[in-house]
Amino acid sequence: MQNHQKILFDCEISASTIKDNKGNCIGIRWLLRDITARKQAENKIRCVEMQNFKLQEAAQLKSQIVTVLSHELRTPLNAILGFSDILLRLNKNQFNSQSVKMVETIIRNGKQLLKLINNMLDFAKLEEGEFSLNLQYFNITELIRLIVDDLRFFANQKNINLDVNINIQNVKVFNDPIRIQQILTNLISNAIKFTETGSVLIELQELDEDKIIIIVKDTGIGISQIDLNHIFQAFRQANQTKSRCYQGTGLGLTIVKDLLDLMGGNITVESQLGEGSTFRVELPREVKLVNNQENQKNFHF
């Protein structure tokens, strides 16, 4: 409608009949209400809903692209790694030292690329809520020592001390050992990667009967307070410059956080630039089954 100032406005009109004592209609009562503000608010809500819908579509499309691309990359990469390994095993005695190093470099870089691809696949599954845990009983101390032994080579290459401190009575936990290995491998390899001198320490403690805590402490470059606020966001690294010297997709800590959320765990970090970082992972001793998963319970001691 248009008011006396010739300004258009949204109007809500309601009408009701006026009746006499005998029930006869003797008139109509009109009520006009200016609802311009309400209509503007509704339009804003619709715009926000449309934007959210487009963002959801974009996120879903991104996850699909990541999944398809990762699968397409992983297939030929597995072939490269497989044939490189066969080539090295069958001809190692015939190759000169330079040729052996070249094939070993292919395998080493291929494994690094495969790890990045697998991280992208895990990230896409976690984003889409299609990730599940394979829960079973296992010895947490044996798993930690195995992970540390696998990563000790990289620490030795940088002359970094890699130490383990186990302070736990009950070593049995009920969780997904593959995903726990993934979490700790990410944290420990990050600590080694961002430490130039000093040491990396892994501690295992009991908070109480129902919880354990795993601490990964390093003497590395540290993290600024600004970066700490975004440390678990996807595609983030402490060094965000174009010339950053540390490789990686920036998905490692995001996957760690998402996996811990799925397990009912928690992770915190304390750090200062130039003074190293300390990551603390709290985990329930027994992860509860989610969405009525039928997980096979296997015992390893």
Could you characterize the architecture of this molecule?
The protein has two domains: 1-131, Orthogonal Bundle (Helix Hairpins), CATH 1.10.287.130; 136-284, Histidine kinase-like ATPase, C-terminal domain (Heat Shock Protein 90, 2-Layer Sandwich). It contains six helices and nine strands. The chain has helices spanning 36-91, 97-128, 140-157, 177-193, 225-228, 252-263, and strands spanning 11-19, 25-34, 136-139, 161-167, 172-175, 199-206, 211-218, 266-271, 277-284. The strands form three sheets. It has a five-stranded mixed sheet with strand order 4-6-7-9-8, with helices on one face. Strands 1-2 form a two-stranded antiparallel ribbon. The chain has a two-stranded antiparallel ribbon with strand order 3-5. Strand 1 and strand 2 (25-34) form a beta hairpin. Helix 1 packs antiparallel against helix 2, helix 3 runs parallel beside helix 4 and helix 4 runs antiparallel to helix 6. The radius of gyration is 30 Å and the shape is elongated. The chain starts with 10 loop residues before the first strand and ends in a 17-residue tail after the last strand.
